[in-house]
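Quick illustration, no need to memorize.
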Amino acid sequence: MTGIQLIAYSASVTLLVLSNYVDKGVYYRVLGKLVGYVLLICTVILLYQFGLVDSFSLSLGLSFTLISFLISVYTLFYREAHHYPKHLETLIDLFLVFIISAYIAPSFILMIVAWTSGEILGYVLIKLGEEHSSEGPLTSSRGFIFASTLTYEISVFTLITLSIIFTTAGIGLYELMKPFTQQLAVVAIPVIIIPLLVVGFITKTANIPLHFWLPSAHSSAPSPASATLSGLMVSLGYYGLYRVISVVDIDAYRAPISWFFVLVGFLSIMYGGFQALAQRDVKKLLAYMTIATNGFISVVFGLYVMRPLDITKWTLVIGMVMHAAYKATLFCESGLIEVVYGTRYVHGIRGFARIASLSTMGSILAILSLLGVPGTLGFIAKLLAVYNSILIVGTDSAMSVTSLLAFLAYIIISALAALKYARIYYDGASSRVKALVEKLDWGLQAPVLVLGLLNVLLCVLVVAFLTQEYGYILALITPLPIITMYLAHAQFRITSTR
């Protein structure tokens, strides 16, 4: 980073930390966070303008910073409603900043430093949730640190070792410090080294069989931490894999690696989806849907490994942003459900829309994205995924058919999970769980509403990064007026049931 980027970044972090200790009212604290995250957005743009990061990092950095700001604001009200200690707000802000820093880091070394810092804070937040909550297991933090964090460190150690072994020590470490936008040295490695190199990144994506740590870890953390872990952090696994394959010569193993990700993704879709449909705990439902959605992204990544086309790369980005937007919205909503009913078990809850009509609007948009309704990120991601499967018919027809079946399975399972989640909002007369409050404060609901809107508004950002040909097509088939009609209809249903 140059001077101006460091100044903007340092000012952002400082302001975000200090904003949590302002005693003049919540509005000043929200304003401090707004300025802090705007400075972080400026840092992302400056890094791109100075040629230190590419469009891949730019798109994820901008999207995830917007989501992070809303999670941060949500935490202000969530902490008071759930009586968490004051330092939860600072921990969440630092956690968000480190994750964004990993996505926008210009080099491997900076990415590793930011990512490792995020892993440590993730463990602290899961541990805090375990100690505070009366529901959920007490061993989630250990599973997170031993499975997710330690396997990641194995991959990092392997990457650094390879940079030294396959080049001279000085040049090897220098390669890890060079910006991704420069031409990095590509090394050929023995096939036996590949598992060590990627195991940590695959574990972070929580695909089968390295998924076991995620459901308990993500459901035990405070809701804003769950939204961050599930929505933003798991995708770091794919981001890391994307960067690793850019410096490792995989041409000799391209087909088997592609098949590995497609098959593992398919299995994760099926397992995560069916487990999600069987859950009563709303956070466990969302955690298992993380495994299913990560399976969907894994299949896309497998197609990218087979044929690294631009359209496939951007499908990967859209899948990651889609997951972040809908998962952050619904995990934050789960925190409101706990406030209203005092439990995460939602099988007997109905009529939530009458108590939290504002946040319901945002959650409906997230559910529509999970359903894949036109006008949402989910629709674009699923449409482009199917298109990418068709593109490789001539290259590998078996993989084309397998990936199509995987995407079809995800479309069906995600729709069923979305409909299962949506049952809590309506038919209040049949609710078997009594609400503890009649109305929720708007401060708790507003961040969830805006998070839900991002499931639509981020379509504009996504389309802007695509080539003109694909961008025009998507712009025509995802008109925003459709979403306006959905919102109007949803609001009508909410008001008519009061």
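The longest strand covers residues 187-188.
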